[in-house]
Design brief:
It is a single chain. By secondary structure, this protein is α+β, with helices and mostly antiparallel strands. The protein folds into 2 domains: 3-52, no CATH class; 58-157, HIT-like (HIT family, subunit A). It is built from 5 helices and 5 strands; from the N terminus they run αααβββαβαβ. It has a 5-stranded antiparallel sheet with strand order 1-2-3-5-4, with helices on one face. The radius of gyration is 17 Å and the shape is globular. It starts with a helix and ends in a 9-residue tail after the last strand. Adenosine monophosphate is lined by residues 58, 69, 81, 83-85, 93, 139, 145-148.
């Protein structure tokens, strides 16, 4: 059983997660568990349907090198790898290493991390020779077309993009 699942079960056993403090202090285990708890807590607050998430997504497995990916960039805060089902000649996913389920789950403390991601994205685009332009897309929730519950930025390029998107 993953740590994420354990955290969620703890949440269930200690009451309504929406009534618990955001800082993870209701979670008596390690600081990592506390951080995960924080993520669960804010996900529940911001997007109630995320309360059922197990937290361990395929992207977390890529971060942990449990499954392979074609990585094009990595630093201590983020990872970028080629999308397995590309929607453009160049299609890269840029993800924070921190497990944030969706853009709707961001909190004030994530501002620095988000600024870092937005600095990295143009750098990756340059490295991938997207000098004629590119598109950055973030899907959120079922109607937004999000299928993996780990925040990610699609970096798409290598062909003219149409508008509006489908
Ligand atoms: P979204 O629909 O916005 O949640 O985007 C998820 C993206 O992840 C899709 O474009 C998938 O093709 C991509 N994807 C899913 N699994 C993998 C994987 N193992 N490696 C690379 N990309 C993946």
């Amino acid at each position: 059983m993953s740590i994420g699942k354990i955290v969620i079960l703890s949440a269930v056993s200690i009451g309504d997660p929406r009534e618990l403090p955001l800082d993870g202090s209701a979670c008596s285990a390690s600081s990592t568990t506390g951080q995960r708890w924080q993520t669960v807590r804010r996900a529940v607050r911001n997007r109630p349907w995320e309360a059922s998430l197990t937290m361990t997504t395929i992207f977390k497995k890529i971060i942990d090198r449990e499954i392979p990916a074609e990585i094009v960039y990595e630093d201590d805060q983020c990872l970028a790898f080629r999308d397995v089902n590309p929607a453009a000649p160049t299609h890269v996913l840029v993800i924070p290493k921190q497990e944030i389920p969706a853009v709707s789950a961001l909190v004030d403390d994530d501002a620095e991390l988000m600024a870092h991601l937005w600095k990295v994205i143009p750098r990756i685009a340059r490295d991938l020779s997207l000098e004629d332009g590119y598109r950055v897309v973030v899907n959120c929730g079922p109607q937004g077309g999000q299928t993996v519950d780990h925040l990610h930025f699609h970096l798409l390029g290598g062909r003219p993009m149409t508008w509006p998107p489908g």
